[in-house]
């Protein structure tokens, strides 16, 4: 088995050294097939004990391969456009000055500077030679004209390609900004989901403890003949299901934690502390005008660039026949139709985003009201316990119900926060 150590290219280091964690050398293994190479590397990951949302967002933007590729793509487009424009500046043309030599006896006799010819054979031979020469000169002129026509078409094609690259560069910058907004929203949703799972796990484990006490109570009652074995088995089945649910949620949480760690370039730590999102203000979602959102959106700007490019190409592209002109006209129509479809699609997404955000806001209000009701009931239960009406076990069970309501409210707030951030991103041009 042969192995080679390769370093990253200078271009990749230029764009990724400040955005990605350090990397070990690349190992290339071509064990059997000498034509098949596999390029892999090992990231040198940071180790942390706790994280919060600002830290996650900062790391995600620095460690984004997508952003690195967009930067490289933009750089390649700039270089290619510069190369085409330089070729256009240095591209010359074929030149030929038309020349005619006398090739008839009359022209020979009247051309200034020509020696007098009296021998018929000499005149005939000279006429023949000059006729052949004129034909050669005419051919060279036609060749020069053909070359100039080819060069002209090449210049137009290169000019069109350079202009298209200019449009592509503008779109690449828009795609980069759009990707940044998309990455931020994705990480917010991912982090919020992990927080919600963590809180849910804590509650489920607490509730399992209460269920274990219920099982002990049922077993004691069964021993005293106050409960049946079916009652004990019912509680046991509920505990078994609770344990299974905890295992499933734990596995999902660990998977999400692994994915988050990979996304932000840190070592996986099962004991990683996730800090709560601070400053979640629950308030009605402010809705912006749809036309304003469309005008500011990245997708509509890119669509506008594509429409402008199609119009420019129609005005500057050299065509040989009506078929080429028809193609250019159809291309404008296609870009216009795509623009209309983008408007429709984005309008639907805007309405859906605001609807989801408003529903999430109402859900928070509902869960807050439910929590207030449970708190009031819990206060009554505490009073009943203080006067000896209910047992400590019953009070503890109701306290778990209070914690369940608190967990549900926390989950509703996290969902609201994610959707509120999604709605806010539309004001910056990102519509998802």
From TrEMBL:
<keyword id="KW-0732">Signal</keyword>
<keyword id="KW-1134">Transmembrane beta strand</keyword>
<protein>
    <submittedName>
        <fullName>TolC family protein</fullName>
    </submittedName>
</protein>
<keyword id="KW-0998">Cell outer membrane</keyword>
<dbReference type="InterPro" id="IPR051906">
    <property type="entry name" value="TolC-like"/>
</dbReference>
<keyword id="KW-0812">Transmembrane</keyword>
<keyword id="KW-0472">Membrane</keyword>
<feature type="signal peptide">
    <location>
        <begin position="1"/>
        <end position="22"/>
    </location>
</feature>
């Amino acid at each position: 088995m042969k192995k080679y150590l390769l370093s990253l290219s200078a271009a990749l280091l230029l764009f990724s050294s400040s955005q990605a964690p350090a990397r070990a050398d690349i190992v290339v293994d071509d064990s059997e097939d000498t034509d098949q190479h596999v390029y892999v590397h090992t990231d040198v990951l940071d180790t942390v004990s706790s994280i919060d949302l600002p830290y996650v967002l900062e790391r995600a933007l620095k460690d984004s391969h997508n952003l690195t590729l967009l930067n490289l793509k933009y750089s390649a487009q700039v270089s290619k456009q510069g190369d085409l424009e330089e070729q256009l500046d240095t591209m010359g043309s074929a030149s030929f000055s038309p020349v005619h030599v006398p090739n008839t006896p009359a022209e020979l006799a009247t051309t200034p500077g020509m020696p007098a010819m009296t021998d018929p054979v000499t005149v005939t031979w000279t006429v023949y030679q000059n006729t052949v020469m004129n034909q050669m000169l005419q051919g060279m002129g036609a060749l020069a004209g053909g070359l100039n026509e080819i060069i002209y078409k090449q210049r137009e094609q290169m000019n069109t390609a350079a202009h298209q690259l200019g449009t592509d560069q503008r779109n690449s910058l828009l795609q980069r900004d759009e990707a940044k907004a998309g990455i931020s929203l994705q990480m917010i949703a991912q982090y919020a989901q992990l927080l919600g799972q963590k809180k849910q796990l804590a509650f489920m484990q607490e509730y399992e403890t209460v269920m274990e006490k219920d099982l002990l109570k049922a077993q004691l009652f069964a021993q005293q003949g106050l409960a049946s074995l079916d009652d004990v088995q019912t509680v046991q089945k509920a505990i078994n299901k609770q344990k299974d649910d905890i295992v499933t949620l734990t596995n999902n949480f660990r998977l999400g934690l692994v994915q988050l760690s990979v996304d932000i370039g840190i070592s996986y730590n099962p004991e990683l502390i996730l800090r709560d999102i601070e400053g979640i203000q629950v308030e009605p979602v402010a809705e912006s005008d749809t036309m304003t959102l469309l005008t500011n959106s990245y997708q509509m700007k890119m669509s506008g660039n594509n429409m402008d490019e199609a119009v420019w190409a129609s005005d500057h592209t050299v065509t040989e026949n009506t078929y080429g002109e028809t193609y250019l006209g159809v291309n404008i129509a296609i870009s216009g139709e795509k623009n209309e479809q983008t408007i429709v699609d984005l309008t639907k997404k805007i309405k859906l985003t605001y609807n989801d955000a408003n529903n999430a806001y109402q859900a928070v209000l509902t869960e807050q009201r439910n929590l207030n009701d449970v708190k009031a009931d819990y206060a009554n239960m505490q009073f009943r316990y203080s006067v000896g009406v209910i047992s400590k076990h019953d009070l503890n069970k109701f306290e778990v119900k209070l914690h369940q309501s608190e967990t549900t409210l926390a989950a509703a707030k996290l969902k609201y926060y994610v959707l509120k951030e999604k709605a806010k991103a539309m004001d910056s041009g990102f519509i998802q």
